[in-house]
Design a protein that fits this description.
Blueprint: E1 7-11, H1 16-27, E2 31-36, E3 53-57, H2 64-72, E4 77-82, H3 97-124, E5 135-140, H4 143-146, H5 155-175, E6 180-187, H6 193-198, H7 210-221, E7 232-235
Parallel strand pairs: 1-2, 1-4, 2-3, 4-5, 5-6, 6-7
């Protein structure tokens, strides 16, 4: 994969999966642009000082004006990888309406706003950039979002990620004539320190690793992906 001269947004880029995606993109020559809202998230981020990593602080991805300002200041955007989101689980009777709306804002609304502003930026990119037309968008759904029966005990989260999957497929058809391919990945439980701490008795060897998922995401975002659009790719590993 060759991302030389290409600019890529990675929202949620300072998390476990995001860091792996940024690492993979840097090895291919990409310049990565990361929106950040909480400066504390940068303390453990390993690529802060990399010359091809540009971090913009104070970006609230749930606010339209904030997202528009971030994307509006980017140079010649090729791809947007939308990883930002959140997780919570609770039985239906213990889930308040505010809790459901919070998950929709964190998962669905952030994805929608990033997709919208990315498309605007891609339409303004000159075709002289490596003679490439269009662009790439990669979203992150989740296994319960494409297999809702696995979402028992987390109905609000499941619905918010199912919306991401549906949004991905709808946009893929809408934007196909412009050469903007829209895809998503749907992970099962990712092998991260936080998930290991939450489920110490699980067989962690079965979980997909961030670096493994990053390979799939990077391909979907690359110019090398010439034909895949509208896919919600399961990245379950052995789980």
């Amino acid at each position: 994969m060759n991302f030389d001269e290409l600019h890529v947004v990675v929202s949620g880029g300072t998390g476990a999966l995001g860091s792996a995606v940024v690492q993979r993109l840097l090895t291919t020559g990409a310049t990565c642009h990361l929106p950040n809202f909480d400066p504390a998230e940068l303390e453990q981020f390993p690529h802060t000082d990399h010359p091809n990593v540009q971090i913009t602080t104070g970006v609230d991805l749930t606010e339209e004006a904030s997202v528009a300002a971030f994307y509006g200041n980017l140079p010649e955007l090729w791809a947007s990888i939308n990883l930002a989101g959140g997780f919570a689980m609770a039985p239906l009777a213990e889930t308040a309406g505010a809790d459901m709306m919070k998950l929709f804002k964190m998962n669905t609304l952030t994805c929608f706003l990033c997709c919208r502003e990315a498309v605007k930026a891609m339409r303004e990119r000159p075709t002289t950039t490596r003679n490439l037309q269009g662009g790439r968008i990669v979203n992150v759904a989740a296994r319960p979002g494409i297999e809702p029966r696995t979402g028992t005990g987390m109905a609000a989260y499941t619905a918010s990620k199912a919306a991401v999957a549906a949004l991905t497929q709808a946009l893929a058809e809408e934007l196909a004539p412009e050469g903007i391919w829209v895809n998503a990945v749907a992970p099962s439980i990712i092998d991260t320190p936080a998930n290991r701490d939450a489920m110490p008795q699980a067989d962690h060897s079965q979980w997909p690793k961030p670096a493994e998922i990053a390979e799939t995401i990077s391909f979907l975002a690359a110019p090398d992906n010439a034909v895949t659009r509208g896919a919600v790719v399961s990245v379950f590993g052995m789980s």
